[in-house]
Predict the structure.
Amino acid sequence: MSEFPKETIGHVKRNYKPAIITISIILIGAIGILSGMRGVEDFDAFDVTILPLMNAIFNSFTFLFLLCALFAILKKNVKVHRRFIYAAFVTTFLFLITYVTFHYIAPSTSYGGEGFMAALYYFLLITHIILAAVIVPLALTSVARAWNLEHSRHKKIARWTMPIWLYVSLSGVLVYIMISPYY
């Protein structure tokens, strides 16, 4: 009997690290640059406030897909887990498109609440932003390890990736709900 699991025989591991680093730097850098921009003056092609709503919808789907992926893997259904993870990547990608578009077109919106609600909003926003930057390389590394059939290494990083990605997607929805009256 071979010392390698059947699925790893003949499998060539790929080095995804350069792509993960490049994608992470480009995404995080672009979002950082956009956060400092003023937006397009007199943009009136459409109501840009539809974009944050779409962001929240995509984040909601990402959250649900991740929960389904988690439940699937807890039941040892790798095929279903993989499909829900890919679905979460798709909705996250769609989120990024609408997020970048909104922040390129629209000026920043200030939160208008006070007291406890303002403190809660800023806590959610700050932790969301920091962990959103962290999740980019984590999620890409997790999927790369799965593609390379490095199951134990995938499992180790996924234990961090899954809860952080769940938090980022849920907190994104909560931030939207809290700031939406001020658009």
Notes: The two ends are 64 Å apart (CA to CA). The chain has five helices and no strands. The mean pLDDT is 92. The first helix runs from residue 17 to 35.
